[in-house]
Amino acid sequence: MKIKRDTNQGDWSDLASENMPYPRKVVSVLDPSVVFYFQDGVPAFENSKRFVVILNPKIKPFVYLKSLDLDDLGFVCVDPFLICTDYSIRIPAKDLSILGLKDPAAALVLSMVTVESNPQDTTANLLAPIVINMDTRVGRQVILDENYPVRYRIWEGLEAFEKRHKNA
Amino acid sequence: MLILTRKSDESIIIGNDIQVKVLKIQGNQVHIGIEAPRQVSVYRQEIYEQIRKENVNAVQSSDKIKNLEESLSNLKKLFPNKP
Question: ipTM beyond 0.85?
Fold first, then answer.
């Protein structure tokens, strides 16, 4: 199953604005009582099976994926389609079957972000996105067969966007 | 480590439901086919290790969220304002 950017979502140009919305799909999981089940946890944290997505206006458009099973385990995530507009992924059949995913529109795709002290060095993991089936509330970190970087510099995505914007 | 010798088209069985088959040997490359139940994930080891490592790097505990807010507000300051 292929998943591409949904052009109805906001882009970086709105980021400086206070009204910058979270992507539509993220907003629909606003309620932190909605628990997502990861049968295999995530690599390195296999025992953490239950996660919630927390929205915090101070960190938007980033969201916080928090474990309910391991104290202090959480990840900052971002919609990868916001930071890499050409991003397009094909979810392997095995992952689709575990997720029970039949409709691409039900998929919420998030990239884990490694926050560095120098903001320009902040990266997002495009090779292994978190994919959540919003219908079944099952999630999984999917390791793609595509050749995307594990450490994609968010800054570069922004620069590319700026360039496009100027040329438009 | 158990060491078995296999030729092209020969397999090994792990447990009762995982089959690992040598499909083709070409120079220093071996093509391997794996049949495993749905709940068993199969990855190239170096890729899997890389993902594990990056997951560990990416962990942000919720008590560090304050630092994070600062860090991210710095990040946002770098984003240009659209006229």
Answer: no
Q: Say which of A15, A112, A114 has its CB closest to residue B76.
A: A15
φ, ψ of residue A154 in degrees (nearest 5) = -60, -35
Which positions 41-80 of A are in contact with B (Cβ < 8 Å)?
42-45, 56, 58-59, 62, 64, 66, 72-76
Q: Chain B contact for A148, CB < 8 A?
A: no
Interacting residues of A40 by C-beta distance below 8 A, sequence separation 6+: A46, A140, B41
A112 Cβ under 8 Å from any chain B Cβ: yes
In chain A, domain spans? 2-167
* Half-sphere exposure at residue B38, Cβ-oriented, CA atoms within 13 angstroms: 9
CATH for A2-167 is 2.30.290.10
pLDDT in tens, chain A (168 residues): 888 876 555 544 454 445 555 655 566 655 677 899 999 999 999 999 999 988 877 777 788 899 999 988 999 998 888 888 789 999 998 899 999 999 888 888 999 999 887 777 889 999 999 999 988 999 999 999 999 999 999 876 666 666 666 665
Domain ranges of chain B: 11-36+44-78
Q: A112 to chain B: which residues are within 8 Å by CB?
A: 54-55, 58
